Amino acid sequence: MEYAYYPGCSLHVMSSEYDVSTRAVLARLGVTLREIPDWFCCGASSAHMTDAVLTDALPAKNLALAVKVNQRIAVPCAACLHRLKKTDHKLKNDDALLKNVNESIKDNYQGNAQIKHPLEIIQDDLKTEELSEKITRPLNNLKVACYYGCLLVRPAEAAIDDAENPERLDRLMNLLGAETINWGFKVECCGAGMTLAHKESIIGLAGRILNDAILNEADCIAVACPMCHTNLDLYQDQMDLKRKVPILYFTELLGLALGLDYNSLEIDKHIVPAKGMLLEKGLV
Amino acid sequence: MPRTGVFVCHCGSNIAGKVDVETVAAKALNFDRVVFSTTYKYMCSQPGQEVIKKAVRDNNLDRIVVAACTPNLHGKTFQRCIKTVGLSPYLSEMASIREHCSWVHTDPDEATGKAIELVRLATAKVRKNVALLPLNIPVTRRALVIGGGIAGIQSALDIAAAGFEAVIVEKEPSVGGRMAQLDKTFPTLDCSACILAPRMVEVATNEKVIIHSYSKIEKITGSVGSFEVQIKKKARYVDLGKCTGCGTCTEKCPVKVDSEFNLRLSTRKAISTPFPQAVPNVPVIDPHHCRYLTLGKCGVCQKVCQAGAVNYEDKDEIIIEKVGAIIAATGYDLFDPKKYGEYGGGRYRDVITGLQFERLINASGPTGGEITRLSDGKTPKTIVFIQCVGSRDEQKGKPYCSKICCMYTAKQTILAKEHIPDVQCYVFYIDIRAGGKNYEEFVKRAQTDYGAVYIRGRVSKLYEQEGQIMVKGMDTLLGEEVEIPADLVVLATAIVPRREARTLAQKIGLSYDQHAFYNEAHPKMAPVENLTLGIYLAGACQAPKDIPDSVAMASAAAAKICGLFSRDFLSIDPIVASVAETCCVGCNTCVAICPFKAISMEIRKDRTGQERQVATVNTSLCQGCGTCLPNCRSRCISLNNWTTDQLYAEVMTI
Amino acid sequence: MKNYLLTEEQIIALFNAAAEHYELYVPVNSENGQVFCWEKTARLDKMVPSNIQPTASIKKFFFPNSEPMFGFKKEKQEIELYQAAASVPRLVLGVHSCDLGSIKVLEALFKDTVDDELFREKRQNTVLVGISCSAKDWACFCSQLEINSRFSQDGDLFITPREEKYILSVTSAKGEDYVNKYLENGETVAGFTPANDLGEEETFTLDFPKIKEVMDSGFELPVWEKFARKCINCGICTFLCPTCHCFDVFDEARRERGARFRCYDSCMFPEFTRMAGGYNPRSAKAARLRQRYLHKYKYFVDNFNLIACSGCGRCIRHCPVNVDVRQNLNILQHSGSEGEDD
Amino acid sequence: MTNIYTPYLAKIKKIIKETHDVKTFQLELVNPESKKKFNYQPGQFAEFSVFGVGESTFCLASTPTRPEVLECSVKKAGKVTSAIHELWEGDTVGIRGPYGNNFPVKQLKGKNLVFVGGGIGLAPLRSLINFVLDNRGDYGNICLVYGARTPGDLVYKKELEDWDKTPDFATHITVDKSAGNWKGTVGFVPVILGEVAPGAENAVAITCGPPIMIKFVVKELSELGFKAADIITTLEMKMKCGLGKCGRCNIGKVYVCKDGPVF
Amino acid sequence: MSKQFSSENIARLNAEILVKCGVDLKECYQCGKCSAGCSSNWMMDYRPHVIMRLAQLGQRAAILASQAIWVCTGCEICSARCPRGIDVAAVVDSFRQLAVAEDVRYGEHDIPLFHQYFLKETRDHGRVRELPLVANFKIHSEHPLSDFALGPTLLAKGKIKLVDDAKGSGVNDLQELFKLKV
Amino acid sequence: MSEGFTPNLIGFFCQWCSYLGADLAGTNRLCYPANIKIIRIPCTGRIDPQFILRAFLNGADGVLVSGCHPGDCHYTAGNYFARRRMQVFKDLLNFMGFDQERLIMTWISASESKKLVKVVEQFNETITRMGPQKQLVLPTR
Ligand SMILES: Cc1cc2nc3c(=O)[nH]c(=O)nc-3n(C[C@H](O)[C@H](O)[C@H](O)COP(=O)(O)OP(=O)(O)OC[C@H]3O[C@@H](n4cnc5c(N)ncnc54)[C@H](O)[C@@H]3O)c2cc1C
Ligand SMILES: Cc1cc2nc3c(=O)[nH]c(=O)nc-3n(C[C@H](O)[C@H](O)[C@H](O)COP(=O)(O)OP(=O)(O)OC[C@H]3O[C@@H](n4cnc5c(N)ncnc54)[C@H](O)[C@@H]3O)c2cc1C
Ligand code: SF4
Ligand code: SF4
Ligand code: SF4
Ligand code: SF4
Ligand code: SF4
Ligand code: SF4
After folding, report:
1. Do residues B169 and B217 lie in contact, with contact meaning Cβ atoms separated by under 8 Å?
2. What domains sit in chain A, N to C, each tagged with a CATH number?
3. Residues E97/E74, Cβ–Cβ less than 8 Å
4. Which of B281, B607, C289, C331 is deepest in the core (most CB within 10 A)?
């Protein structure tokens, strides 16, 4: 199984640990990722929020580049995934737009991409039994709050799961042996791209989410998006919380369960340290 | 020798405001066989009709074309009009220059041009019209009532009161319908059972009313005046004649199943009656759960039944009833709120539907009338009601307003307060629709006398936190977000047609709207009739309705039927097919194709004594669809009023 | 009979010379390559092909599939009639002997008792240029009807290829006029003897007098039922046949204007003889097939002393279910003497 | 350019309703030229056009001896006849003809004539009867046996009464099925013909009607002693052109239109 | 001050939004579900349903000058839950785009600024380099010194690189798409 | 597209659904092109392909047959027969040299007045784009 790989700006530097763990886990599971040479920023929220042309041009350019590598594209960042999928959906359904966009990006995208999040790849392309066979270190005793955020589940054309009660991540965590909590903040917004721009948003939004996870006695929060990770991880110091909660990429948890080396997953890059908790649970 | 008169209506300014009616009338005079034309302000009015009558007499007209509104509105009016001057009603045609022209086109010249063309079309057709003789159909003076809810019961009683027989077919083991599930009823707050039970008893004891409970319609054939109904009486396993309704069997039965009647709020036994006042008060065995019927062991109920009424060998039975008219009174279902993920999608036990709430507060309900939380059995102190769940929502539900939820929610806040004096009720609403006698007053009372807090805004999300349901909504009047920790949340779910409404409609040839509510023949002028002759509507199967409306409609439908039954013969339009036997080649094609099985083959002998088979149409079965015509290879079938000649004549004017 | 020896250029020039006054029709492959038929062309640029027989027969030039007979206009109770304009002179190239031979049949019929001007006018207005055919296919049987596929005098002009050049024979006065008018310095040849293919033998010989005898002898032969079993009454044979001439008359009107048309009809169609009341004297398929055969090989002979068939083979070639008139006639000619064989 | 298929225009002068499905039309040719050309004899037929609908064939029911009227009787049966029935007085129609052969009026001179008609088949006979009545001296006794399905289907009722009162003219009217206050004979035409039994001596029988009836009438006549040569029948056939071209009416080698309809 | 309604403004704005994002403003029946779910409602001067209402009434200027359109995080909860199927988030996007295009005085300072520098990074380098983005943004923002302390931690954790030569090679293809005003 | 060409459209509408839909369009004052004439028929099952052929011959540029949704036929099955018939007939039209796009069949219920307007508008657009239908040539003087 081979995918074109679009890491996106966040995974490039800021959240390189997500990049590392994604590559490691997928390699372990037999999925080959081929990074798209010369990929661009997808424009993130900034583009569609402020410029109608860039909204579709940037994702389209990347899609055009990607399909030259492979029609199947793996996108781990929820924000990038959202942009690429939304644009792709528009292009697939609007020939005139496709023509226009192709002209402006001086490329020829045909609307033939299949864009997937690694979570989908793991759950839909691989057999459950094969996956469970490979688990060497089940996440027993670990209580995980699965957090999906906005962009993985909205809108329908870009979503990877149900908008109100997604369960993909929960299913994976359960498969790995972890207990997942039922909570009301799975799909609440954490502040998205406002990390730097408007800290006030993050403190308020992420704070509520963290609080509910703490209330539900979660050991950690599993995420599948670098933005969510940063928002939940970065400012815990400045929030009014009973305790700090480690935020872990699902790929990191999966990596641990698959027996990958702790250090190779670069978990220590997180601001809120997770090692102590993981040691306690016997996962390191 | 066709001599046609053309009558162009102004319809006030409805037509004349757009279409130059004088030009239309003038142009009409040039059309083939048109000898007279005129215009008038309101052709359908008395003086308008006089204009027509006079013209027919003075000009010796033998057919007329009225260019006015749609034939569906006044076709009959003008038919009747010319009948009074001795012309066959079938020698008239209408050109719809209002609905199909002046109202839908903007440019006056275009509209006038089109009106002329429409008149041309109609004059061409009318030329080929034939003076048909109406068919007289004998009327079987018994009515079938499908559905034994309050609407069905009321209409059966009214029909019986007029001295005719009514046959109720109810799919559940007991009649009563939704009303039997309710506690008290708005706007008077009288107890549902207290007003329903006497009716149920009455209908059970009335010798003119036959109840087939636990039965389904299999098939209906025939048409107005003489329908033949096949009813499947499901095996009840308890003899209706022998059972005394003592209830011992139910008591002793070891199997517990979720109760449908109590909406899964409690359990019932494998042998049970849905509720204590059931009519007939005879239990049924649920064959999917009865141990004897599934595993062959147990047999307790048979052993304990003193009357010897339990019979495990019981079989489904087909009954044939002959009736002259049918009332559909199948009521409604409730929208399943599972679609609303943001309201928990059915995951939160303390989020219930309005109807479940009715069962909760009902003294004979699963909790004996105590309002308790399903999660922990505690008495709620804060109850949030959310209106319009599934209503007025094209995205997840239905676009229409369910009409009664505003009212029953208000009722439920009152009842909640009566049951739990220190309860606080909140109601999230978008608009309050309380149009009815004493309805607005009732809602106001809920707010003033019972302290229900009404918040204008839709709830965005519910989630569980620390044993409570957090209700995240908007008070649009305040312009602020509100978050209410509730102990119990009640969703006023939309009223939707019965799940099987569509299948039933297709079986009996009822027309229905996009939601599967049954269509009235005309929204204002024929609200209780269906387009299919002989079928009437009552209650919530036509649209969301409360009890007073359902009962009013039921009585209206009954009155219509009594009117029909007051005659020995029903005179109907002879729009039926006929075969020109001389050219029929007996190929059988038409026999196979007729959806109403109206065509059969007969042997004819010609003068030389040679035998051959020819098709014949049974005019009381033929509905006049015309499907057989294009299929006849020798084109020897004709359909009255829609003859090939007539349609050709229209097409030829294009 | 005058014969000219002409080069290809000369022939082409001869026909192009008249292009101003005549509509020029040449046999060509139609777009889909399926059908070979006469089509109008502005100019001829190469010699017409000689060996493929057009699918539709020559009759369409005098007796088209559908033609208006006159037009009318209605105004309330009044009617005004008018005639269609006269036809344009036409020159039809590449007509095979069989088709040329068939024209006699139509002429006889349309002239009989009263003269059909619609037919006559078109016939008179058309110059027919025959061409020598040397590629009879499996269905052709013109020779059985004593038609020479290599040469015919039934048209106006006739072309026979000779080495690199062509012999142009003048076979009618109309042809003569044409040549006189448009041929520039053509070289006549003397002593041209047309080729004859009548010697080529078929697998069986049709003895038409014998066939007629059998037909005369009785109406009710069991063979008809047998022949008809295959036939699906599609009518293709009658439409393509150069001698079949039954037509239907009907009105087409659009509001107050209209016209009376005639169009091909076919005795193979059940409705052909059905009367308004429903009675149909030829309701059985066998009766209709018999009508076609009797009409061609008996009635027409009785009435006009002509066989209404030219052996062009179209009915055989194009019949969707392979009804073969030759085989049927063969059976028929033997069934008379030896009784029916099975 | 004109052609043989172009009809003369004619105006409907008068329409007489004979039965529920038969009407008689009195026509007048519009153009005086065509009036001159349209010369017919009893037994001939013409093509009657309703423009925009089509043409249909009808016997001429009037007699050339009364040149002021040209009449056709039309039974409503198909498309064209229905259209004809809808015509008004004053409408213009087309008429083409006369076509076909005619009754051999010369050979019939001096003979007794036996007319046997059924239904609308009386139309061509009426032409000849009136012709004979107008040349009364030339012919012998007349006997008419005429029948229809019901009393309502009898055509030319007024004339039938007149004929009945005419001397040397025996009229026998019958119906297959009685209805209303019918007081006349009931029975099939061939049967009644047998009962009436007109003498075959110096007589010629002329018959027209539905094919079935003709079949039995011919049988009956030969039993009465009529020789084949003394029986004249006229045939109805589906025709289009009337000119022996369209092929429709071809029976054997004959075309009913030009070789018939009188046989 | 009371609002001025005019039928032209109403019609014009309705048409403008319909063209921009396909939303028919008239469909909104003001139930408030969008606002109730909205992540940022607590920071907004106008809640989403009020924006919808203002838009219905042609109050273009008020919306463009609002702070609400900038604090919207683009989470699309509003669109996902609107019973009339209105893509409210797209309407908000449209207003932001209009605000940028028309150079109005924004109702919020930092957020639009951030978007500008973000896109500048994309324009000039194809990809976003954290350090220059942070630096540029912070220098110009209203709170230049906030989170200054986080810097070393981020650097230490490798969350920010001092030198980042990331650059998509086809950058030039895209340049002309950008109409940035930085 | 031919300039200034207004197609002549004919609708054969079932009396139980589409005709009522057209009535409703009127009641709701919806607006659609005036160049369609609606002929009322008892059921789409009544439609003889000959009517359509006739319509084309007589100058219709497009024919719209509209009936009840599948399963909703007032006569239970007429629309199914019609659908099959139209399918076959379209092939035949093609064979006869008519553009089969000039004939469409749709389902419009009594409540779908908006759909009706859309269908008519679209059809009008298509036919306008296609230009006039070849017409029967009548002889001229
Ligand atoms: C929560 C709630 C509270 C309400 N409170 C009030 C109130 O206070 N006051 C008020 O006026 N109204 C109230 N209503 C409305 C009231 O329930 C209805 O108006 C009333 O029940 C309609 O009666 P019906 O006979 O039309 O339908 P139903 O009561 O639904 O009866 C239909 C019957 O037909 C049977 N049936 C269905 N399909 C078939 C079939 N195919 N074959 C045979 N039988 C069939 C059903 O089993 C049922 O018995 C309330 C409704 C709800 C949901
Ligand atoms: C502005 C307006 C617009 C409306 N538009 C609509 C609409 O669009 N659609 C709709 O469905 N409904 C509409 N309605 C409602 C509609 O008018 C009523 O539903 C309907 O007219 C009620 O009919 P009725 O027969 O009950 O009463 P009425 O129409 O009032 O008829 C009562 C009759 O009784 C006579 N009468 C009264 N007292 C006596 C007496 N003592 N003795 C003898 N005769 C007496 C009166 O003179 C009158 O003729 C509208 C109403 C209004 C006010
Ligand atoms: S006939 Fe129709 S159009 Fe005329 S006035 Fe009456 S309602 Fe109006
Ligand atoms: S389909 Fe027509 S021809 Fe065949 S049996 Fe029926 S009526 Fe007669
Ligand atoms: S019209 Fe024909 S197909 Fe339709 S019901 Fe009557 S007989 Fe049957
Ligand atoms: S019958 Fe057949 S072979 Fe003879 S001329 Fe006609 S098509 Fe040709
Ligand atoms: S949710 Fe939709 S309908 Fe409700 S206020 Fe918001 S935009 Fe309007
Ligand atoms: S997209 Fe914006 S307006 Fe909509 S809910 Fe999210 S933050 Fe609020």
Report:
1. yes
2. 2-118 (1.20.1050.140), 135-280 (3.40.50.11810)
3. no
4. C289
CB–CB of F138 and C71 under 8 A? yes
Q: Domain ranges for chain C, please list them.
A: 3-188, 208-333
pTM beyond 0.95: the answer is no
d(CA A278, CA B17): 82
Residue F97 lies in a domain: yes
Structural domain that includes position B47:
4-126
Q: Which residues line ligand 5 (CB under 6 A)?
A: B 576-577, 594, 596, 598-599, 617, 622-628, 639
> What sign does the dihedral B574-F23-B524-B167 (CA atoms) show?
positive
Residue with tokens 């995208």: A109
- Please, what sign has the CA dihedral across residues B360, B361, B364, B367? positive
B506-533: per-residue pLDDT in tens?
Answer: 888 788 888 999 988 777 778 999 877 7
The three-class DSSP label of residue B184 is strand
Tell me the pLDDT tens digit for each residue of B33-74: 899 999 999 999 999 999 999 999 999 999 999 999 999 999
**Calpha distance D228→D234 (Å, rounded):** 14
pLDDT tens digits for range E117-160: 888 888 888 888 888 888 888 888 877 767 777 777 887 787 77
The Cα–Cα gap between A84 and A60 comes to 7
Q: Using CA positions, which residue lies closest to atom 8 of ligand 5?
A: B594
**Amino acid E179: pLDDT:** 63
Rounded to 10 deg, the angle between the B644-652 and F49-57 helix axes is 20
Above 70 in pLDDT, residue D153? yes
Domain membership flag for residue F138: no
H helix or E strand, kind and range, residue C104? helix C97-111
Q: Report domain extents, chain E.
A: 7-101, 110-177
Question: Taking all residues of chain B, what is their mean pLDDT, rounded to a whole number?
Answer: 93
Chain B: closest CA distance from residue E36 (Å): 5
Task: Enter the DSSP assignment of B323.
Answer: E
- Residue with token string 């019929």: C109
φ, ψ for residue B120, nearest 5 deg: -60, -45
List, as one string, the DSSP characters of A124-164: IIS-HHHHHHH-SS--TT-EEEE--TTTTT-STTT-SS-SS
The CA B626 to ligand 4 mean position distance, Å, reads 13
B615 and B544 fall within a common domain: no
Q: Is C336 on the interface with F (CB under 8 A)?
A: no
Instruction: Give yes or no for a contact between B520 and B126, defined as CB atoms under 8 angstroms apart.
Output: no
Give the model's confidence band at E116: pLDDT under 50 very low, under 70 low, under 90 confident, else very high. confident
d(CA F111, CA A96): 33
Q: State which residues form the domain around F85.
A: 9-130
Q: HSE-up of B245 (CA within 13 Å, CB side)?
A: 13
State the fold for domain E7-101.
Fumarate Reductase Iron-sulfur Protein; Chain B, domain 2 (1.10.1060)
C288-342 pLDDT, tens digit each: 777 888 888 888 888 888 888 988 889 898 888 888 888 888 888 877 544 444 4
Question: Which CATH number does the domain housing residue B621 bear?
Answer: 3.30.70.20
- pLDDT computed for residue C340 by the predictor: 43
B267 touches chain C (CB under 8 A): no
Residue B192 shares a structural domain with residue B61: no
Q: State the Cα–Cα distance between residues B644 and B626, nearest whole angstrom.
A: 10
Superfamily of chain region D8-99: Translation factors (2.40.30.10)
CA neighbor of A249 nearest in space, from A1, A38, A78, A65: A78
Q: Identify residue B159 by its one-letter amino acid code.
A: I
Q: Is the per-residue pLDDT at B324 higher than 90? A: yes
Is B348 in the A-facing interface, judged by CB distances under 8 Å? no
- For residue D261, whether the previous peptide bond is cis, meaning omega lies within 30 degrees of 0, is yes
Q: Which pair of structure tokens corresponds to residue A98? A: 């496709």
Q: What is the mean pLDDT of residues B203-226?
A: 93
* Three-class secondary structure of residue B321 per DSSP: strand
